[in-house]
Structure formats: structure tokens, C-alpha cells
Amino acid sequence: MTNYLDFEKPLAEIEGKAEELRAMARAGEGVDVEDEAGALDQKAAAMLRDLYKDLTPWRKCQVARHPDRPHCKDYIKGLFTEYTPLAGDRNFADDHAVMGGLARLGDTPVMVIGHEKGNDTKSRIERNFGMARPEGYRKAIRLMEMADKFGLPVVTLVDTPGAYPGKGAEERGQSEAIARSTETCLQIGVPLISVIIGEGGSGGAVAFATANRVAMLEHSVYSVISPEGCASILWKDSEKMREAAEALRLTAKDLMRLGVTDRIIEEPMGGAHRDPKAAIASVGIAINAMLNELSDQSPKKLIKDRREKYLNMDGNGLAA
User: Fold this and answer.
1) Residue 87: per-residue pLDDT
2) What are the CA-CA distances from residue 145 to residues 129, 139, 186 (Å)?
3) pLDDT value at residue 316
4) Inter-residue contact 259 to 319 (CB < 8 Å)
5) Cα 116 from Cα 100, distance rounded (Å)
6) The whole model's pTM is what?
7) What are the E-state strand segments in 132-231?
């Protein structure tokens, strides 16, 4: 069953009518409905193109958060072989909001790390909705250091509203863990590729995405704060999230122009959730291309270029 976003309600009505007609035919009511259903399909396809032709930043936020959008686990399953999960931070616990391990991308051995939101109520609670605790970032640090030791490229898949702000996380050093993870990103002498597959929220995303190459899916978002949080702070009214989304410049196009991201990965018409296999395949092509761009660079150059990339960004996010 398709989950429709608020702005897709007219589309839901048309696709629903087409499905009702086909259900009648399957029920053996002797009605030839294919012509009428086909006309509705064409109308729905045209409406889908119109809806997604020029999405507002707020609507892109909604698409980025779609519950059926493929998550980290789906990308690992669809792109990587011989995936061996590695757990724990060797200090406190294993954070299920962060998954990672050794894998192969084609013939290339890599370390893959990502945020996992879960896809139903049980798994979302287990994964803490993709909001990592300190032990999640310390696990990522451990895996990045292991990759550096064995000369393995690191691929990170970012999809988080932000780091978990709970009392326990703060007591265990949340800000320090995020800072250390960001520092580790800057220090490892292997290629580091990051893809924003859904939400890239605040320092919780930066801790995985301080990379040589950062790619964003077309309808993903990447920002210092959620539109709702920004609206609550600036206007004391979370309902002004649409205005906040416009001001934050959080879309892939905005961030490409500002020099924060290096590549935009096209999504299937209607978003990655409408054709997950195609979206996953596109991400795989982009990761391979970015790894090829970096394959001949020395560890010193990888570190130097990565540091300069971020140090040369001015206060507006533009490359100096």
C-alpha cells in the first residue's frame, strides 16, 4: 500500500480510482475497465511529473522523510556483497542507530557505515529513529580507524534527524563523540565518500559526512537544524517550518551551488520510495564514480584535500 504525502492527495485519489477499477475486473464482474484505468494512469503520471517538477524546500523535507524511502540497510543489501557487520564501541554499548562493517562494492573491499532509521514501529524504536548516541559515533570512529589501518575506502550513508539529545547521551559525552568522529573523518588517509540518502541533520550528519566527496540524493536535505526546530527558535512557532525550510537552503541544488555537496544523484520520478531498486542502483553508480576519482590519490593528498575543502568554506558555506 502506497503511503501518500499531504501534497500528493490529488494523486492518491486518481491512483486509487484506477486500482478500484482493476479490483472490480479481478473480482470477475465482467467489466472491461482497462481503457478507463489506463487513462487514469496517464493522468496520474502527468500529475506526478507536475508535483515533482519544482518541489519547494519543505516538500523536499517531506519526501526525504517518507517512511517507504530506502534506508541504510536497503542500500547495504542492494549494493554490497560479503557484508560483515561489526558491533560495539568497545567502551559502553552497541548503538543500533548506527550500522557498519566490512563489505565489497563490486571487487573493491570497503568499510561501510550509516544511520539506520528502521522501517516499522518495532525497528524504528530499536534504531532510535536514526538518532545516534555517543556509542554510535564511537563505533563509527572505531570502524574508520580500522579502515585506515587496512587501507580500505570508507563509504558513509547519512540519514538522521540529528544526534540523540537525551540526558543519558549528554552524560556520556555526546558533543565530544560527535567532535571526535568529525576529527577522525579529517584524519584518515583513505578515500572517504558520503551520500546523504534522506535527512542530513546537524552535527549528527557532519560527523559522518566530512568527506572527500559528498553526494546527495535529489530529494534529500542537509541542514544545521530541522525546519521545525529552526522555526521554534526564530519565530517561537514550529508551524512556520515552510518559511524556515526556504531560509535554511537545505536542498541538494542549494548546497551544490554553495559548494557543500559535490554531486546530485537523480531519483526516480516521485522520489526514491516509488522505485527503490532504481534509486539504490543510481547511488551505487555514483559511489563507484567517486571512488574512481580518488583511487590514485596518496593518503597525504586525501587528507590535505579533505581538510582544505572544509577550511576554505567561508561563513556563507561558499568555497573561498
Assistant:
1) 94
2) 26, 10, 11
3) 52
4) yes
5) 10
6) 0.91
7) 154-160, 192-201, 213-217, 221-223
**Residue 26 contacts by C-beta under 8 Å, 6 or more apart in sequence?**
none
Measured CA to CA, the distance from residue 79 to residue 193 in angstroms comes to 15
231 contacts: CB under 8 Å, gap ≥ 6: 237, 238, 239, 240, 241, 243, 244
Mention every residue, 6+ apart, whose C-beta is less than 8 A from residue 308: none
The burial of 65, by beta-carbon neighbours within 10 Å (0-12 exposed, 13-18 middle, 19 or more buried), is given as middle
Yes or no: say if 291 and 108 are a contact pair by the CB < 8 Å rule. yes
CA torsion sign, 197 to 308 to 248 to 269?
Answer: negative
Q: Would the CA dihedral through 255, 257, 263, 267 be positive or negative? A: positive
Residue 41, burial from CB neighbour count under 10 angstroms (0-12, 13-18, 19+) = middle
pLDDT of residue 317: 46
* Under-50 pLDDT residues of the chain: 317, 320
d(CA 78, CA 50): 30
Share of the chain above pLDDT 70, in %: 96
What letter does residue 251 receive in the DSSP assignment? B
> What's residue 30's pLDDT?
56
Strand residues in the chain grouped as ranges (E): 81-85, 98-105, 108-115, 154-160, 192-201, 213-217, 221-223, 263-265
Q: Which of 232, 251, 254 is nearest to 241 (CA)?
A: 232
SS3 state at 99: strand
Between strands 98-105 and 81-85, the pairing is antiparallel
The residue behind cell 564501541 is 89
